[in-house]
Design goal:
With 250 residues, the chain is α/β, with parallel strands linked by helices. It has helices at residues 20-31, 61-69, 94-122, 142-161, 181-185, 187-195, 206-217, 239-243; strands spanning 11-15, 35-40, 51-55, 76-79, 125-131, 167-173, 228-231. It has a seven-stranded parallel beta sheet, with helices on both faces.
Length: 250
């Protein structure tokens, strides 16, 4: 159902939109009345109702260019595909860390450039899916954090270079509860323990990320470009507050 944000009939591409955050984003755009294509290397185990799946290796520039050339129109591009395993810097060669940079920074650049002509004709919008990992130290995910920091800066530069034809913004995500959360945090007990570190008291739901992406792509955000919207439930409580002995209740 169209929720009144001016996206009915708009052509939306969501990279990595087959599960987790990406599926939540795709579903939100479908509910907003958009025509949604999700692309990833493998088809979804549970398809997003109302969205069309297209196989695509986002690390293959030629395939990415061919994919966008085949599309008649692109009004919105959501660069969601990404991720990383836990990998300490000194325990892997630079080439393995570079693969993380490739997926999380180079691939969104490749996709956005491939979609540029169509986005410009549509006076469209790009939404980058960033992370709080790009705003703070990220031990065990340093290359990922570096890529996400670069992605946010890239979005700001795109917003200036391509204005006023294309708006470019970033969603800076905190922790999101997906089907893989237990693997990251150690089962349900781990998820609950991690949730207690978030001021909001819980992890985000993918649909909440999706609604934020819909807002940034919509007419309601027509004057917003080059911005970073924090979707992190209040962020992280500073560790020193719990370590300090002053102002403690007796």
């Amino acid at each position: 159902m169209d929720n009144g944000v001016g996206l009915r009939g708009k052509a939306v591409v969501v990279t990595g939109g087959t599960r987790g955050v990406g599926a939540g984003i795709a579903a939100a755009f479908v509910r907003a009345g958009a025509e949604v294509v999700v692309c990833a290397r493998r088809p979804p185990e549970k398809p997003v109702e109302g969205a069309v799946f297209a196989p695509l290796d986002l690390r293959d520039p030629q395939a990415v260019r061919g994919f966008f050339e085949a599309l008649a129109r692109v009004d919105v591009l959501v660069n969601n595909a990404g991720g990383t395993p836990y990998r300490l810097l000194a325990q892997s060669e630079a080439e393995r860390h570079a693969r993380v940079l490739e997926l999380n920074l180079t691939a969104p650049l490749t996709a956005t450039l491939a979609a540029y002509d169509r986005l410009r004709r549509a006076r469209g919008s790009v939404v980058m899916i960033g992370s709080v990992s790009g705003t703070r130290p990220s031990p065990g995910a340093a290359a990922y954090g570096a890529a996400k920091a670069g992605l946010e800066n890239l979005a700001r530069s795109m917003a200036v270079e391509w204005a006023p034809d294309i708006r470019v913004n970033t969603l800076v995500l905190g922790m999101v509860r997906t089907e893989l959360s237990a693997l990251h945090y150690g089962g349900e007990d781990g998820v609950e323990a991690v949730s207690r570190t978030v001021p909001a008291g819980r992890l985000a739901d993918p649909v909440e990320v999706g609604e934020a992406a819909v807002f940034l792509a919509s007419d309601a955000a027509a004057y917003i470009s080059g911005a970073s919207l924090l979707v992190h439930g209040g962020g992280e409580r500073p560790a020193y507050l719990d370590a300090a002995t002053v102002n403690k209740e007796e």
